[in-house]
């Protein structure tokens, strides 16, 4: 795949337009009640209640994008719908407790992005016993009877990352060199898919993987430590590139290489298009990141959740795929991601309004933005 491809189907409203959900919108003018930490029991006859359970806050996307986009869309579709929100802070046991509390407090639907894709099976089982539907959001819940899965084609994302790195190193004449691979959390099924996708491109490319790590909690600090270990093991002159599965870990790897005196920095991959990562891309410190239109993902989840909470279903023919989670083929809505490099920052994340040029180009990044024609 051409790493410069900017075929961002993400902008298209077709995916969301296709989600014509059953059931009519709420008519009441009553304002929504749900907030983080809402534990009030749901009285008889109360409005539909949706629980949004997110896994962690180290990755900025969840609090900055997923939650506000989801809550805004729910309120737009159903003014009286109540939202119970919780963030597990990367603690699987805490998330189980939060899910149990949501069920106890009247949730009609669980929208669950698991800390541990396996351990939440007991939560899903309890929800199913109570006939409460469960939407597996962003990360696939494994070996459980979930109703819907809403995410991106995550193996494809790993392929995009791996291909971008291989293509860049080939263009630089370093396609037989040694790279470091820093994967995501072993408890996150998405990390496994990214890893599989990346290996499908890197393996057989001629590149040598000199060190590879799975990173607990997707922690940037742990990624920095792993990169330090790789530098000690391989020597800084031997490392021609770094596959990092997301932007936070890319930042950790880059910090380790800067401290070790790398000049110039080798190409480093990433994912999520975090502001700091986009700034690193513009400045030439990080080669690429993956842009996922989280607004579309969160809004799709909100539309399905509202339909289910009101006793309806999303139109069956509008779901665009199925993903096997070890127990069943889960009806799925899979969105498309794309690659961002210095050459297309303006035509991707800026054009879509994900980041404003003035946010990216402030302070020390002003000159780099001018050179990259971001503004």
TrEMBL record:
Put simply, this protein is called D-xylose transport system substrate-binding protein
Query: Periplasmic binding protein domain spans which residues?
Result: 50-312
UniProt entry keywords in alphabetical sequence: Signal
Per its UniProt record, what InterPro entries does this chain match? Bact_Solute-Bind_Prot2, Peripla_BP_I, SBP_2_dom
GO CC annotations, alphabetized: outer membrane-bounded periplasmic space
What Gene3D superfamilies does UniProt report for this protein, alphabetically?
3.40.50.2300
Q: Which family does it belong to?
A: Belongs to the bacterial solute-binding protein 2 family.
Q: Does the keyword Signal apply?
A: yes
Task: Cite a single Pfam family from the UniProt record.
Answer: Peripla_BP_4
Organism equals Stigmatella erecta
The record's annotation in PANTHER family points to: D-XYLOSE-BINDING PERIPLASMIC PROTEIN
Give the superkingdom in one word: Bacteria
A GO MF term: carbohydrate binding
Question: According to the UniProt entry, where is the signal peptide?
Answer: 1-17
Reply yes or no: does the keyword Signal apply: yes
So where does this one cross the membrane? none
Compartment annotation: Cell envelope
Looking up SUPFAM superfamilies in the UniProt record yields: Periplasmic binding protein-like I
């Amino acid at each position: 795949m051409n790493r410069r491809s900017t075929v961002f189907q993400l902008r298209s409203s077709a995916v969301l337009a296709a989600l014509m959900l059953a059931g009519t919108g709420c008519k009441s003018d009553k304002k929504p009640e749900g907030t983080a930490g809402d534990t009030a029991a749901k009285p008889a006859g109360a409005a539909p209640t949706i629980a949004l359970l997110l896994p962690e806050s180290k990755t900025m996307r969840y609090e900055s994008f997923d939650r506000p986009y989801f809550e805004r869309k729910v309120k737009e579709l159903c003014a009286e719908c109540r939202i119970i929100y919780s963030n597990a802070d990367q603690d699987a046991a805490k998330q189980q407790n939060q899910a149990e509390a949501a069920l106890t407090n009247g949730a009609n639907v669980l929208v669950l992005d698991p800390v541990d894709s396996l351990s939440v099976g007991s939560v899903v089982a309890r929800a199913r016993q109570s006939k409460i539907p469960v939407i597996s959001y962003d990360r696939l819940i494994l070996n459980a009877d979930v109703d819907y899965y809403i995410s991106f084609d995550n193996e494809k994302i790993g392929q995009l990352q791996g291909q971008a790195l291989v293509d860049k190193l080939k263009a630089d004449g370093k396609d037989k060199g040694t790279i470091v691979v820093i994967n995501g959390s072993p408890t996150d099924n998405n990390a496994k898919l990214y890893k599989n996708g990346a290996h499908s491109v890197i393996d057989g490319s001629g590149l040598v993987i000199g060190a590879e790590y799975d990173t607990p909690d997707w922690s940037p600090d742990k990624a920095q430590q792993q990169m330090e270990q790789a530098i000690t093991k391989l020597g800084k002159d031997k490392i021609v590139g770094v596959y990092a599965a997301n932007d936070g870990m890319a930042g950790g790897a880059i910090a380790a290489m800067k401290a070790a005196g790398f000049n110039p920095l080798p190409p480093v991959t990433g994912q999520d298009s975090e502001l700091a990562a986009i700034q690193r891309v513009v400045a030439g410190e990080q080669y690429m990141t993956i842009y996922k239109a989280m607004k579309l993902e969160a809004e799709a989840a909100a539309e399905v959740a509202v339909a289910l909470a009101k006793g309806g279903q999303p139109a069956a023919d509008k779901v665009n795929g199925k993903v096997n989670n070890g127990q069943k083929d889960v009806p799925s809505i899979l969105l498309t991601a794309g690659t961002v490099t210095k050459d297309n920052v303006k035509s991707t994340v800026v054009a879509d309004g994900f980041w404003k040029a003035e946010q990216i180009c402030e302070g020390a990044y002003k000159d780099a933005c001018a050179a990259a024609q971001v503004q």
